[in-house]
Model the fold of this input.
Amino acid sequence: MPFTLTRHPFPPRRRQVRLAARTDLVPRAADGAGFIRIRLQSGVPLDGFTSPGAGDHLRVFVPEAPEWASVAVDDAGHPTAPSRTETIVAFDAEAGWVDLDILVHAADETGDAGLIGPWAARAPLGSPAMLADPKGSVVLGGAPVAFVLAGDDSAIPALRRYLGMFGAGTPGLVLLETAFDPAALGVAVGPGVELRVLAPDPARPSAALAAELAALAGEPPPAASPDVFIFACGEQSLLAPARALLAAWGIDVEHAVAKGYWKRRAD
Ligand SMILES: Cc1cc2nc3c(=O)[nH]c(=O)nc-3n(C[C@H](O)[C@H](O)[C@H](O)COP(=O)(O)OP(=O)(O)OC[C@H]3O[C@@H](n4cnc5c(N)ncnc54)[C@H](O)[C@@H]3O)c2cc1C
Done:
């Protein structure tokens, strides 16, 4: 088996941080949608913080809008503020910072623009937040013979880290459901890798990805099943077609990464 996925648990840690910088990765749309890289800075080194896996994620506890002045905690100092899960883009434990790429989505039909998007987009620099370290890491060892990476905007940071791990010449297919320019978000593929950019339907997020995965399930796998790595993450509805593809290609669910990264609230 040329590649392995090994799960490593990490001890729970919380960190006080501040919003230290924000960079627009794409121009913000009139409806407020965008993609923003934020830097969260601690006043001390992030002792023990690590992120060996491409999909490693942490939780960010966000202060209350509109002041974004403090993160609610209980008597024991544990955060009671709402939080969101985000993928680690880059970090420097010694220097005490972590970078995250946050999709800022337009408000849905109910007017809900979300929690972390508006904070990332508008909170004053210096605004406090709290981090909970990754609970663990799924580390890909060795090298797959071929890969399929499927994701929406929320999965771009993980998908990009996976792409960076594969050696040049590994054939692959990247299915990306996004309205943004993939190059602006750092998604670049080398020779032998096909990038298919799929237009999102806001009323049916991840439906375009699901259709592509369903079509793939009707085709033979590009290599013997244990040698193909599949990552499929997006809106919750992507899970069923992702699992169906794994079943069709004879890939164990533990030997792949398939997750709902978010759930559409309005139906
Ligand atoms: C393991 C993991 C890793 C993740 N990594 C990232 C990451 O690196 N970057 C990132 O941006 N997100 C990532 N997510 C998704 C993230 O947890 C949040 O769902 C996302 O940031 C939206 O949060 P919000 O507070 O802005 O919106 P929410 O309060 O969660 O949602 C508000 C409304 O916006 C809609 N909405 C939510 N997300 C989207 C979306 N992606 N597209 C369109 N509409 C949406 C919902 O339908 C909802 O009605 C990840 C999730 C998981 C589980």
